[in-house]
Amino acid sequence: MQRVYNFAAGPAVMPVEALTTAANEMLCYGDTGMSVMEMSHRSKMYQEIFNETEALVRELMHVPDDYAVLFIQGGATGQFAGVAMNLMTGSGKADYVDSGNFAHGAFVEAQKYGSPRCVASSREEGYVRIPDLDEKTFDPEADYFYITTNNTIYGTRFASLPETGKVPLVADMSSNILSEPYDVSKFGLIFAGAQKNIGPAGFALTIVRRDLIGRAMPITPKVLDYKKLDDAGSMLNTPPTYAIYMAGLCLKWLKKQGGVEGIAEVNREKASWLYDCIDNSRIFKGVAEKESRSIMNVTFRTGNEDLDAEFVKAAAKAGLANIKGHRSVGGMRASIYNAMPPEGVKALVEFMKKFEMEHK
Ligand SMILES: *Cc1c(COP(=O)(O)O)cnc(C)c1O
To answer: From the CA of 80, how far away is ligand 1's center (Å)?
Structure first.
C-alpha cells in the first residue's frame, strides 16, 4: 500500500523520516533492549529523550530562558481551562478575541473561572476573517489578552499581533506553531495541541513566562498547575512518553529543514501555489478573506455542495486524502502543515486544474 498525501487538519501528516526512525527503534531503542513505550518515565534513558525534545523546542523557537516549556496532558482544550485557572487570578478579567470555534470554546470555558470579555468577534460573518481590533477597547486591567493565531477550521490567521502593552498576550497556536517565526518574548504564554504541527496527539505544549505563574486558583488540578508542572519538569505524573519521543523525532527533522525560518519559506510558497490556483480558478473560490488567509489551512469551495462532494471523492481516489472541509464550513480544506511535502501541494494544484478542465 502506498502512502497518500494526507491533508487532514489534525492528527495530521508527519515527516516520513520521523516515522521511519520510530519504526526502526520500535522494538529496541539504542542498547536498552526495549521500546521507548516500555521505559520508565523516571529512567535515565527516557529523561535524555525528554530533555532533547524540550531543548529542540527551545532552540527552534528561540525561547528565552525566563520561559518555562511544559508538556501537559488534556490537549489544547485542557489549556482553555489551564490558562484561565493559572492566569485569570489578578483582576479576574481577561480579553478574548473570538476569531473561530476554538477561540469561542476557550472563551466559554474561561467563564467558569472568572470574568472574561469578548473584545471582538467575527462569529456573525462565519469567521471568514480576523475581526478588526481597536486598542482603545482593550481592558488595561485584564490579566491577559487572548488570541488564536491561526483558525484551523476557517483558514484564517492573524497577519499581525495586537499591541497589548503591559497586558500579557496569550496565544493558542495549535495549528501554526513552528510554521513561521514568532518572537516568543512578545507573548506571556503560547500553547498548542501537539497533533497538528508538533507530533502525534497526546499533549499540549505550553510556553509561559515564569513571572506569570505561581498564582493559580486553589481549585486548579495539580496536573494543570503551571508552577507545579515547571517545578516537576512536566513530570508530576506519567507524561505521554511516546508522544513526546515522537515529537522529538519530528523536531529533529524540522531542524534539518533549516528550522522554523527555513520551513517558513517553504510554507509560504506551498500556500501561494494553492491560493494562486484558487484566485485564477473559475470554479473554486477561497473561503477566508484575503488579508486573513492562513498558510497552514487553505479553505475553498465551488459554491455547489454536490460538486464539492464530487471533488473530495475524486481527490481521495487520486491519493489526496482528507480534503473535506470542517462540517461547520463545508467545501474543502487543505491542511498543509510543515510535514506536507511541496510535492503534495503541487499534486493537489494539478488535480484542481484537471478537475476544473473537466467541469466547465
Ligand atoms: C485543534 C485545535 C484545538 C483543539 O485541540 P485538542 O488538542 O483536540 O484539544 C484548539 N485550538 C486550535 C486552534 C486547534 O486547531
So the answer is: 10
174-231 tens-digit pLDDT: 999 999 999 999 999 999 999 999 999 999 999 999 999 999 999 999 999 999 999 9
Q: Where are the beta strands (DSSP E) in 16-92?
A: 67-72
Pocket of ligand 1, beta carbon within 6 A: 10, 75-77, 102, 148, 152, 172, 174-175, 193, 196
- How would residue 296 be classed by pLDDT, with cut points 50, 70 and 90? very high
Q: What is the pLDDT of residues 64-73, one digit of tens each?
A: 999 999 999 9
- Determine the 3-state secondary structure of 204 from DSSP: strand
Q: How many angstroms separate the alpha carbon of residue 97 from the centre of ligand 1? A: 16
Contact between residue 245 and residue 53 where contact means Cβ atoms under 8 Å apart: yes
β-partners of residue 297 are 335
> What is the value of pTM for the model shown?
0.98
Angle of helix 342-358 relative to helix 259-279, nearest 10 degrees? 0
Ligand 1 atom nearest to 148, measured from its CA = 13
Residue among 71, 73, 77 to mutate when testing ligand 1 (max atoms within 8 A of CB):
77
pLDDT computed for residue 1 by the predictor? 81
Atom of ligand 1 nearest to the CA of 204: 7
d(C-alpha 255, C-alpha 264), whole Å: 12
Instruction: State mean pLDDT over 81-108.
Output: 98
Cα angle: 222, vertex 224, 227; to 5 degrees: 75
**CA of 175, closest atom in ligand 1:** 15
Indicate which atom in ligand 1 lies nearest the CA of residue 78: 9
